[in-house]
Amino acid sequence: MEFFIALCLGITLSAACGFRVFVPPLAMSLAAKYGHFPLSSGFEWLGTTEAVIALAIATSLEIGSYYIPFVDNLLDLVKIPLAAGIGTVITAATLGHTDPVLQWTLAAIAGGGAAGILGTLASLARLTSTGVTGGLGNFIIATIEAIGSISLSLLGITFPLWTAGILVILVAFVVTKILVNPPAWLKQSS
């Protein structure tokens, strides 16, 4: 059961990376610093004051940058692969007491996959907003993503099983809606 909870925690925090890359590592770092989150072997550095400061600065810069029209679209080019990478590392950090092959395989598939899927969906929403509003409505998407990342991170650390379940249902719903009734711009490109 402990393994399943750790996996749910990793997936939830990785999914939050799909919205904002540095918010979940900051949440992990703060939780570890104050003794609410056990870090796996090799990831103890995440619970240091230096890590908290560095991640807080990176988080502030990232959140602020997404409020600049068209810069946000450029950041999405970097965000998706970076989110998948950090999502993989975060999930591996939660699965520390397992066989390394299983740890990193699950981390890459579940953690990297969750971050990549949510990052792609968020980027598609921003791209649609840019096309419809000329980038002027992107601050709404940026705000929703920031709130989503913070909420997923906090809920994931406190209620990993519930949050992972809600996340799976939400992603399945969105993907099904897109496949059943694709947006007009997506229909035109095929």
Structure at a glance:
This protein is mainly α and 190 residues long.
Structural descriptors:
190 residues; 79% helix
Account of the protein in words:
With 190 residues, the chain is mainly alpha-helical. It has one domain. It has helices spanning 2-17, 23-33, 49-65, 71-94, 100-133, 138-158, 160-180, 184-189.
User: What general outline do the C-alpha atoms trace?
Assistant: globular
Instruction: Determine the mean pLDDT.
Output: 90
Content of β-strand: under 5%
Structural Rg? 17 Å
Low-confidence stretches: none
Task: Work out the helix count.
Answer: 8
Question: What number of structural domains do the residues give?
Answer: 1
Q: Span from first to last CA?
A: 44 Å
Total count of strands: 0
> Major sheet, described briefly?
none
- Find the structural class using helix and strand composition: mainly alpha
SSE map:
Blueprint: H1 2-17, H2 23-33, H3 49-65, H4 71-94, H5 100-133, H6 138-158, H7 160-180, H8 184-189
Helix pairs in contact: 1-4, 1-5, 1-6, 1-7, 2-3, 2-6, 4-5, 5-6, 6-7
